[in-house]
Amino acid sequence: MAGYGSNNKYAFLGGLRAVAQSISYEIPLSICVLAICLLSNSLSTIDIVEKQSTYGILSWNVWRQPIGFVAFLISALAECERLPFDLPEAEEELVAGYQTEYTGMKFALFYVGSYVNLLVSSLFVTVLYLGGWECPIPVSIICNFFNISEGAPAIQVILAFLGISFTLFKTYLFIFLAVLTRWTLPRVRIDQLLDLGWKFLLPISLGNLLLTASLKIILI
Question: What is the membrane topology here (predicted)?
Answer without folding.
Answer: Multi-pass membrane protein
